[in-house]
């Protein structure tokens, strides 16, 4: 009986190793093929010609709460956009893939990370009290004094860029990973992805030049239907197409670009769709380098059953979780005794 169990154990571990190696090879192959291709040309919108240095988007919000300062050895800064009421989402990121101690196990030697959340003000004072307790416990919140509302998401993005580039941010960081609080990384796939990605960036990564990478969208049209959640009138945005922009689930940029985006935000007209706005501002940077990583994103409309099938068999790295329960079910598909010993107990 013991011999049978031992043989069964060897078979299972061998199969797992083969699947993991195959997945790593797939990630590396697709990464090389993806980054060899140049991003298609983006629509050039003449903001410099039309607006120049004239302030068309005045804003002067302040940070009312900030996290513990970086120690100076963090090379990667993970910044999560979060709604004030998403306490469970933030807790999930702190205890899974975005936890610096867990993430470090999947990064090349010499890389360390820091996780922060950026949010606005809640409408209820009782919610602010809970946020104050949360900050006292974790010291990882950047809170800005605008109302936390969907139509203020672009301010959240702008002040994320401001904090990143401030002296209280992470001045030694080489890479900013902007995420939404409902994203989950497949860390086994991310490990191979990150090595190849930073190698491809080369001097751009080392020198922190102006680069941005992610699920790049080109030449999309604005929603002109007033019934749409993303409706933009001609007054809000007069052009027929958008320039390059990145879907906000996850994207990467250099700290140097973050600073430039903040500086240019004053002279770029405000629109509330933050992903598109950041793309519009980034397009004003002449030296910008774009890296399309679209093939590493799971379809956001995939439900849990399909996501689970792809988790280990396909080279997707970034997944959108539709609920906190789905988040933990995906995470527990690949966790081990070190990263999440509680998965079997929780029976998720």
Automatic annotation (TrEMBL):
Record flagged with keyword Signal: yes
One annotated GO biological process: protein O-linked glycosylation
Gene Ontology MF term list: hexosyltransferase activity
Record key words, sorted: Glycosyltransferase, Golgi apparatus, Membrane, Signal, Signal-anchor, Transferase, Transmembrane, Transmembrane helix
Location, primary (coarse class): Golgi
EC number(s) on file: 2.4.1.-
Keyword Transferase: yes
InterPro entries, A to Z: Glyco_trans_31 (IPR002659)
A GO-annotated cellular component: Golgi membrane
Membrane topology, from the record: Single-pass type II membrane protein
Compartments reported by the entry: Golgi apparatus membrane
Signal peptide residue numbers: 1-17
Sequence similarity: Belongs to the glycosyltransferase 31 family.
Official protein name in the record: Hexosyltransferase
